[in-house]
Design brief:
With 295 residues, the chain is mainly α. The protein folds into 2 domains: 2-96; 111-293, MetI-like (MetI-like fold, Orthogonal Bundle), CATH 1.10.3720.10. It is built from 10 helices and no strands.
Length: 295
């Protein structure tokens, strides 16, 4: 009787968990639909469009069609001649089938260009993500332990600079100082001029050298928020009753910080880090064009 009851409870918990997961997935799909629809509607409401610029450029080519013909053709291709809902459905259908059109800049399919850039972006995102955690979390904890000290103020200033500093501006400064003035790094590209003549180890070092400036630019401009978040949560934990109880029991400060406080601080930190992973890797695709291809 007892075993059957426990078995029924396990089945009930599995059923509840399955229903919860299904509901969350369906809710995510609905939210994604409305978010993409709103963004598409806002972009369609902009007075000018990139389609008009492309039609104007192609109409100026020798022997080309007129601007009106190009505009009608491009509007039909991208669903701009339909209403907002009709154009959105056409875009959504193409996106779900993996058809993202051709790149007007490179004149190749978008997915083909994406395949060329994804591995560099994946490596860049992975490196910056690890460095961001290794730098921001310890400094945030250290600032909380030394609250209102000179070290705390210094870390706070660094974090605010990182939050406020535009990445394109900081990347330009890095290029000016380290590529042009000091000539320590190449100004652009992902590999050096003599890459094909290098050994295997030399090729790895050459690629790593080209990743230095993009990594520094992304890390410096991204650690500020995580440092401040870590400091704030660590201060809340350090002021909790169980921390005062642990100290009153005579535990060493090192054990109180590393064992009791840090473990509870990790809960919100892991949450925000997990939520930032998609944005970090998606952003690296955009940042890579400016920082790697143009550095």
């Amino acid at each position: 009787m007892g075993s059957n009851l426990r078995s029924n409870k396990r089945i009930g918990r599995k059923f509840v968990l399955r229903n919860y997961i299904i509901k969350r997935i369906l809710l995510s799909i609905v939210i994604l639909f409305f978010v993409t629809l709103i963004i598409y509607s806002i972009l369609r409401s902009i007075p000018t469009s990139y389609v008009e610029s492309i039609a104007r450029e192609r109409a100026n080519l020798p022997g080309s069609k007129s601007y009106t013909e190009w505009l009608e053709q491009l509007n039909a291709v991208y669903g701009m001649d339909k209403g907002v809902l009709g154009g959105y459905l056409q875009w959504a259908k193409s996106a779900l089938t993996g058809n993202f059109g051709d790149s007007w800049l490179y004149n190749v399919p978008v997915t083909e260009k994406f395949k060329d850039a994804i591995w560099y972006s994946f490596a860049l995102g992975s490196i910056t993500f690890v460095l961001q955690i290794m730098i921001a979390v310890p400094l945030g904890i250290l600032a909380a332990r030394k609250q209102y000290s000179r070290l705390d103020y210094a870390i706070t200033v660094v974090s605010l600079i990182g939050i406020s500093l535009p990445i394109f501006f900081f990347a330009t400064i890095l290029k000016l100082v380290f590529s042009i003035n000091l000539n320590w790094f190449d100004l652009y590209g992902t590999v050096g001029r003599y890459y094909d003549q290098l050994s295997t180890w030399g090729k790895i070092l050459d690629i790593g050298k080209h990743f230095v400036l993009p990594t520094v630019a992304i890390v410096i401009t991204s650690i500020g928020g995580l440092m401040r978040y870590t400091r704030t949560n660590m201060l809340e934990v350090l002021n909790a009753d169980y921390i005062r109880t642990a100290r009153a029991k005579g535990l060493s400060e090192k054990r109180v910080i590393n064992y009791h406080a840090f473990r509870n601080t990790l809960i919100p930190i892991v949450t925000i880090i997990g939520g930032s992973i998609p944005g970090l890797f998606a952003g690296a695709l955009i940042q890579r064009r400016y920082l790697v291809l143009q550095v």
